Amino acid sequence: LVAPSAPRMPTALQAATKDPATTSYQPTEGANAAVDTNNKGDAWVSQMQRPRRNRKSAGVRSMVRENFLTPANLMQPIFIHEDSDQVVPIPSMPGQSRHTLDSMVEQVKKGMALGVKSFILFPKVPDDLKTNFADECYNPDGIVPRAVAMCKAACPEATICTDIALDPYSDQGHDGIVLDGKIVNDMTIEQLCKQAVCHARAGADFVGPSDMMDGRVGALRMALDAEGHTDVGIISYSAKYASAFYGPFRDALDSHPGFGDKKTYQQDPANGREAIIEATLDAAEGADMLMVKPGVPYLDVIRRIRDVVDLPIAAYHVSGEYAMIKAGAEKGWVDEKAIVLETLMCFRRAGADVILTYYATDAAQWMNDEGNVCL
Ligand SMILES: NCc1[nH]cc(CCC(=O)O)c1CC(=O)O
């Protein structure tokens, strides 16, 4: 029990269980005791904890704020295509489009001007280039290497990341090669290594394996280093769950799985410890950052990894999460700007350093509008 003179005030519970001899306060029954107005001004009332003092003004709140959000924490995903020279809106992701390479460069410049400094590219690949082995994924003249080179030429300071997985190039819509109806691990890794080296040659700053094959981070690190790409980092999608929240993304890229689902390689949403196994393996294999995906339903996973690994953590606020906020906002049921900025801050509180979000540039714009680029 806390003595009446102790610097930490007793909580209501402690007060209610306190030895009556040390105070004039006599607890009556349970919670009612805490609101007994007859005790105004007595020892308990004056010793009551008042956390609201630290929230009394904007000045005080900013003094004791624990977490901050800046545009530099945000990474903007950009969908790219060459089916036509049109920017094609994505119906299930209002505000997002399949960009041409020229409009992609404009998106990068726009983000950079607002303080968003990192971008990740996702290609929509025409059906006639898709095969089971997904060899188009390492074509040096393919859409991604050319896009990376254009971004780096236009904005050398921008951090350009690419997604490493076979699904946009797979005629099966899977992240790996399919043999006898199964997604085969080790053969897939060989393709992923070629893909990563191809992107590194084009100038990518980071490659992001999103395929969830076993052992791919170590293999990618060796393949990159063997060609001298020691400065190219790996943001590993460490804890990537088999999630329904990816639906609008698969619409955007026309990459829905051709058969079955992705549950033999992406994680079971019921599992938390498994994420720690994946994260610690990826760290040991040489990942530079670890990613958790999707975002809000998996904040506990971010926290659990944060508590055991010291690498930076990225969180992916995925397409379905974006679509749900958009839908709610379009109905007028939620305040889009407030909900987005709150959501992004919550990622930071959970322990994420970097947040991949389709809202990156909009959020940076909102922060800039308020003249407060650090929330
Ligand atoms: N491997 C592809 C990939 N990379 C990122 C996403 C989803 C991103 C989003 O939903 O915003 C996916 C989809 C999937 O695994 O099916």
Brief sketch in words of this structure:
The chain has 375 residues and is of the alpha/beta class. It is built from 13 helices and twelve strands. Helix 9 packs across helix 10.
Description:
This protein is an alpha/beta fold and 375 residues long. It has two domains: 1-55, no CATH class; 72-369, Aldolase class I (TIM Barrel, Alpha-Beta Barrel). Helices cover 37% and strands 15% of the residues. It contains 13 helices and twelve strands. The strands form two sheets. The protein has an eight-stranded parallel barrel with strand order 1-4-5-8-9-10-11-12, surrounded by nine helices. A two-stranded antiparallel sheet has the order 6-7. Strand 6 and strand 7 (182-184) form a beta hairpin. The longest helix has 18 residues, at 185-202. It is globular and about 80 Å long. The relative contact order is 0.12. The mean pLDDT is 91. Residues 163, 165, 167, 175, 210, 246, 249-250, 318-319 line the site of ligand PBG. Belongs to the ALAD family. One of its GO terms (biological process) is protoporphyrinogen IX biosynthetic process. One of its GO terms (cellular component) is cytosol. Keywords: Heme biosynthesis, Lyase, Porphyrin biosynthesis, Signal.
